[in-house]
Amino acid sequence: MPDLPIVLITGASSGIGAVYADRFARRGHDLVLVARDAQRMETLASTLRAETGVAIEVVKADLTQASDVETVSRRLQEDDRIGVLINNAGAGLSGSFATQSSAAQQNLIALNVSAVVALANAVAPRFARAGTGAIVNIGSVVGLAPEFGMSVYGATKAFVLYLSQGLAVELSPKGVYVQAVVPSGTRTEIWDRSGADPANLPPLMEVADLVDAALVGFDRREPVTVPPLHDAALWDAFQGARQAMLPGFAATVPADRYRA
Ligand code: NAP
Known about the structure:
The protein is of the alpha/beta class. Helices cover about 45% and strands about 15% of the residues. NADP nicotinamide-adenine-dinucleotide phosphate binds near residues 11, 14, 62 and 90.
């Protein structure tokens, strides 16, 4: 049997990333786990090594810090055994736009946007040259819902969805699979970490169910996987409405409704 690629998972110390680590280890993949809490990742790694026999490396990195992003990027560029990137590390931010500090918003963008782009950029050329590889980016339904009043978090996740769809257009002809995973509220530490009021949490999906559904989409090579969306036709209609506008964007005169 050919060697399975190594899977590099960011945000692997808890929640969705930790379940991805469990599932890929049980599929027989060696892993590189990335997050800030090395001790937690070591604990997970020793359990998974004992239970599955795969090799697991732990890389401590704060993905809001350019030097740490650079370290992980270099690893992705140089280690051609890594064939899957799970761009999962992310955080939320409580409060309304006007009450959040600019520093906190910029920090969120560094983690949820800049690091995601940098790590995808680090692997994309190598994957494209090899004609294989997979990039999985974790978005959120909030990225489709400005109505939820989580403007900066939602904007980072809208970015992740757009980036994933754009990368799929650019990279799938070269043999590289790109998946956007779009969870809704999922039972992880993100709520507590972002200061959400425990009395006001939305209904939550269990994290194992979320990741197992995302992996069904991964195995089917779906470009966008929305585990909580039961009516798949709604997504197709949404994409259809967007694509129906594209020819009109070539218009060189303004629409009639804008004529004075
Ligand atoms: P989580 O349990 O809080 O996990 C977040 C992970 O990201 C942790 O492993 C954390 O590890 C890591 N992380 C946070 N800040 C980091 C930093 N500066 N540098 C490196 N790693 C960092 O939350 P989760 O729900 O699993 O979140 C995973 C992804 O799912 C995020 O992108 C989130 O936006 C997305 N998502 C979650 C939900 C939900 O309801 N849970 C819904 C939609 C989308 P360390 O603290 O050890 O660094």
